[in-house]
């Protein structure tokens, strides 16, 4: 299987629906549409990364940009993750609005100094002088048998670093709204694209719009338990919530959309109503975002909790290659159901 | 140096082992019988075979995402390879690593690698251990042309030179990194210029000819074993299939004509012609070698398919030595 045919269709807008109110667009296609529209309205935006230009990205979500905007605004870089981030930092300080791509999220590790010690801290260290409108796009998530170095969810590492904003869209609508906000944002953002979501479609407005960074979204209202699910786990949690509604458990599902900043107020409000909290993410449980959410909820909503906070997350191991192990590794609706039932 | 008939036949067998295994893996991937990403080594067999043919069995190698050829040319086992590609518990990594992480520590093969360039610094470490323990071994890093653009390569090259380590750098220059042609991502003409920049010698080699690679590697290895410090070979080669998998991709990053032109220099055909012309082997004995190896490959598919998947309890095994995790 190749990274080209897994994602067939990832890049196609359904053109007959393109003009109707319910126009549907793919998750991957939303990336390229958003970038194209922003690049048309703002000449300071450029895109750079490995194989993003002539090839359109290994996942196809940059396809069409280079033909329209040329090689100087859609740059094919050498394999050089540190220099790719540096290219973004330096040009952002000079007033451009770069979107730089690290093909797989695992590769942030190769560029960690530029991300953590440079991009995140420049403004602060310079006493506020530098503005850094830098967007880093990268593909995270498991489920393609891509093994331990091409499947990770490392968002918690990034969230730990003051100065970065970390964004995890769960569908194509959020891709468009959040990516627009990231590119227009004057701080460094990491925009994590889930590689298993690329071909999924949903309604996406034609024109650019912004979803504010730091505002979560109530996907489903409910009264018995608050389920906070991150990124692709929103889909799994939806299935779990439907299943449980047949069994008399009414879930309120919250999608934080951004994990840094984190919309804790929305969660506190929900938990004060439901008295129960389950947090779901694809990253390993130990030190994951769920740990931070749990800590903040017990600080702010302890009196409302009727049961310990439950986390549904990956076990503490690298991501195994074998499909049987990987399937067991990634949280799914079934495990979310079990996690919720633990509370009752 | 004298290239004996025995060496010529040995090099041929190594290449056939890689070729027939890879073709089979490609077919299995095409029919969705292999999970994950598959980076095939077809077209580049002369490089791994020529270099590994010149090594002692305990000399270490580090490899790349395109690592099947390196392990097989070093003597890797078909069954454990195929089982790993299928994610079975009998595989080289008990099914936990897959194509990009195959390894065989008994053969001193320190792993394929999913991170471009990451094997090169690890080879520096192995070379350092060789030097410190004075064990007479050398370490070899295989890496692509594209990998020489990443910092890890440069740090490793400089350190190996500064510490005068027994290490051979083998660049497999197939002119592309994924879909990017080399001339678009570096401003030098030959990758070998990078060795000179760090102060060690190197040579450009015809990477489609296993004998040329073997001779160059043997020469370099002798000097390296004598304590002359690191060296580099730039093997000009070509991959016949796509970056990932077999079939062509949506973008036209290279032409069919170019692939056809390079296929005329198929390293197996080049060497077969030599074997026949020099009377070392005839067409029949060549075919017999292929048939024998093809049979082994087919048996490895059967072995892999009949092998069990890992047990779910094994998930947390081997995160740390001696035990499980929190
Ligand atoms: C650090 C890192 N960046 C990017 C990638 C994605 N990637 C995998 S293989 C590859 C191209 C490597 O080119 P080259 O080194 O020439 O080896 P070849 O594939 O041609 O054998 C890229 C960019 C990666 N695996 N690791
Ligand atoms: Mg290459």
CATH homologous superfamily caption of the largest domain in chain A: Thiamin diphosphate (ThDP)-binding fold, Pyr/PP domains
- Taken together, the total number of domains of chain B comes to 1
Which cofactors or ions or other ligands sit in this model?
thiamine diphosphate, magnesium ion
End-to-end distance of chain B: 57 Å
| Assembly state (oligomeric) | heterodimer
Protein described:
Chain A contains 12 helices and 14 strands. Chain A has helices spanning 27-41, 65-69, 81-93, 112-119, 122-125, 155-159, 172-184, 233-246, 264-274, 289-301, 323-329, 333-341; strands at residues 24-26, 45-49, 74-76, 97-104, 135-140, 165-167, 189-194, 201-203, 217-220, 225-229, 251-255, 258-260, 277-284, 310-314. In chain A, the strands form 3 sheets. Chain A has a 7-stranded mixed sheet with strand order 3-2-4-5-7-6-12, sandwiched between helices. A 5-stranded mixed sheet of chain A has the order 9-11-10-13-14, sandwiched between helices. Chain A has a two-stranded antiparallel sheet with strand order 1-8. In chain A, helix 3 (81-93) runs parallel beside helix 4 and helix 8 (233-246) packs across helix 12 (333-341). The N and C termini of chain A lie far apart (43 Å). Mean pLDDT of chain A is 94; it is low at 1-19. Helix content of chain B is 43%, strand content 10%. A 5-stranded parallel sheet of chain B has the order 1-2-3-7-6, with helices on both faces. A two-stranded antiparallel sheet of chain B has the order 4-5. In chain B, strand 4 and strand 5 (180-181) form a beta hairpin. In chain B, helix 1 packs across helix 2. Chain B starts with a helix and ends in a 20-residue tail after the last helix. Classes of the chains: A alpha/beta (344), B alpha/beta (326). Chains A and B meet through helix 3 and helix 11 of A and loops of B. The complex binds thiamine diphosphate and magnesium ion (MG). Thiamine diphosphate (TPP) sits between chains B (65-66, 114-116, 144-147, 172, 174, 176-178, 243) and A (50, 79, 81, 103, 107, 110). Thiamine diphosphate sits between chains B (65-66, 114-116, 144-147, 172, 174, 176-178, 243) and A (50, 79, 81, 103, 107, 110).
